[in-house]
Amino acid sequence: MIDINKHINITILGAGESGVGAALLAKSKKNKVFVSDKSIIKSIHKNELSKNKIEFEERQHSIEKILSSDLIIISPGIPNTVDIVKKAEEKRIPIISEIEYASYFFEGKIIAITGSNGKTTTTKLTEHLFINGGKKAIACGNIGKSFARVLFEKPNYYDYAIIELSSFQLERCYALHPYISILLNITPDHLDRYNNNIDEYAKAKMRIIQNQTKNDFFIYNQDDLISNQHINKTKTEVTKIPISIKSLLSKGAYVQSNNIIINLLTETFTMSINDLALQGKHNQYNSMAAGVTAKIEEIRKKNIRDSLMDYKNEPHRMEFIAKIHGVDYINDSKATNVNSTWYALESIENNIIWIAGGQDKGNDYTELTEIVSEKVKAIICLGKENTKIHNSFKGTIEKIYDVKSAFEAVKLAYELSSKNDTVLLSPACASFDLFEDYKDRGEQFTSAVKRL
Question: Counting runs of H as helices and runs of E as strands, what totals does the chain give?
């Protein structure tokens, strides 16, 4: 591994939030830094790079220049199959993620959170618990600011970095050592990047515990089949703490008689699930994971209870937008896979007009057949190619429509809905066919609802 204390020649591939954050941190450490992006770099990022006198290029990769690097920091959106990455590997140039690079300079405790669903909510909820508990903590990583930017802006300030980690970011982590790691679940997602192989995807997730020791903690979902299969195959000395809504546990967190119970042997914390700010079974897991983390760090029971009761969820995650003529409109644009959408459908009692679709990631919609037949009265497909959704539900739902914009989707949903129905945007797909990202999709949906 490269000696980061030496001044070295660093290339950063990708100039999004992760890449620019890494560039700023690397430049502050007196390294020679070059940023290369095959796409157009956003103006805000170009201005930031220029202001800090960081050399960059866009719409190309200068191969010779990149391959003269001592170290390459790769942005998570760049797969291992691209030509420049293969060439760098052939030259044995170390390639690491921005998370890995930033971790070399962080002196506090890392709380690392991953999973196919719920990781953003759990990351922000954990931050909320820690700040209310008097801790100097910040949520970063695959959410908001990059880890590297946090350390550039406030070096040696935070005692806790609460990092949301995607499988893409974990792929290039080698020495990352979380004090507490959380694995919420593993369900089919991003399989197009993993040769449509769930095991390859799961192995990337399991990298979160690769450097943990018996003095560290690993919180995991005991009810999740795929997670448990891979946990059982992974050799580790980390202290494991399970969470469950199906089983009573002698150690960990579980649900009994509509109460969340956190038992870490020294003392027990109990709280009614009806008092949780975040409702639904999926949020019971999220709340337990955050609560266990807070208990490990000895945050007071009152702070934990108050924080779990008053937390406000992030936008685009089961976000209530409006009630119009007795119909609820909910923005769950962050639901980019089947499992996440299942939880959204499960949490709604009324008849549902379901707005779904987008860029498919190898989804198996048959997992939704039963719950769709029970709760959904019409499906509105919002995407360029909707054949797979039509084929999956044509024997289950009579009314399936195609639209090409959020405004069309909301207008049609309004026409199809009756009093006490719920219009739910929960796409189960990526957004990149029609929108910039899931936020853009959610904002356009919200805007269209408000036009009603």
Answer: 17, 20
